[in-house]
Amino acid sequence: xxxxxxxxxxxxxxxxxxxxxxxxxxxxxxxxxxxxxxxxxxxxxxxxxxxxxxxxxxxxxxxxxxxxxxxxxxxxxxxxxxxxxxxxxxxxxxxxxxxxxxxxxxxxxxxxxxxxxxxxxxxxxxxxxxxxxxxxxxxxxxxxxxxxxxxxxxxxxxxxxxxxxxxxxxxxxxxxxxxxxxxxxxxxxxxxxxxxxxxxxxxxxxxxxxxxxxxxxxxxxxxxxxxxxxxxxxxxxxxxxxxxxxxxxxxxxxxxxxxxxxxxxxxxxxxxxxxxxxxxxxxxxxxxxxxxxxxxxxxxxxxxxxxxxxxxxxxxxxxxxxxxxxxxxxxxxxxxxxxxxxxxxxxxxxxxxxxxxxxxxxxxxxxxxxxxxxxxxxxxxxxxxxxxxxxxxxxxxxxxxxxxxxxxxxxxxxxxxxxxxxx
Length: 423
Ligand code: EPU
Fold this sequence. Notes:
5-stranded mixed β-sheet
């Protein structure tokens, strides 16, 4: 429940990146030595993946139990039960990231067709083709992928992704680290989360290099060892707080995030009139009630472009900007659901087709009862509630907990009037 209209001020510590840590947990499968991850966000996606990995037979310690909630130690001894349950995969598409490391280390795994956010079809054909290029056999039957390695070990191969895929690239890298020979990945993703995974794998002994634009080469090694690694800050959480500051006319410093990772967002928000300052590990966002925001046209793109995950939250800012803005979602075909709920709060937002929306502003938003079963769309409705006059009730916040650590506590610390209530 949110009472909107309060400018947010102060500092917020940005958590470790969800889309980095999940892949790094999977990387721990590649060795029987301990992998220690620091700056692990306390979010439910981490809990779900930890449960899945525990069920497979791995040991996971930390995050919570020992008073130090942001460190996770994983030791992947043996895998007596190489199986991902349907329930976990339904909740979290990222469970599919276990495909590559399980094949590379144990030569087999059974995974369900994954679910996750309802933001489009989200097939896994790139992942399957990449594993096949490394010599794996994958059979799809009754909703499950049965993956195995017919020879004793994966072998290096040539992978060219038809479209840029973040997790596809990561699965291919993870699988290739222990394959025999060299793997070349073309049209690879450039997201900072991919590079953070490469950094951890390098510390574990993997030989991975970006050798040209969107090209990665991996020389397989016989074994990998343990390592310690600190997860990068979450650029998507940072963007959410940046918009909260800008739209409420506040002044918020985001600590623990690399401003370079927010480059495309900061470029767009500057064009919209939001003032910011950066140093090496922080970004200060200065909103102002006296300086009008202006409309912008934005198209999403793979990194270093404007992330698809930035898109829905930005919409809230655009409802407060002078003129007509357009959003073109190029990555997923069904990621404009929040438009309907924002319209119920007073936004002048028109969905032109499944990938395009037009927003005319500024329009005052008013409180309403809203909700969407999706992570970024849920965060978007919270942002709208912070700007709206009156009281907004957002339902389904468990979807927001998948990727944001204690979002309401962090907002309260900045002055917001928000509390979690039982439905
Ligand atoms: N695609 C295919 N086949 C595949 C894989 C992808 O056609 O086998 C298509 C997708 O349908 C999409 C495009 O390729 O049109 C790009 O998808 P990508 O594979 O890059 O997405 P992802 O790796 O599954 C990650 C993030 C998403 C983020 C996207 C795009 C994780 C766990 N998830 O998903 O994050 O939106 O990259 O940057 O890293 C979120 O955090 O809320 C979230 C949805």
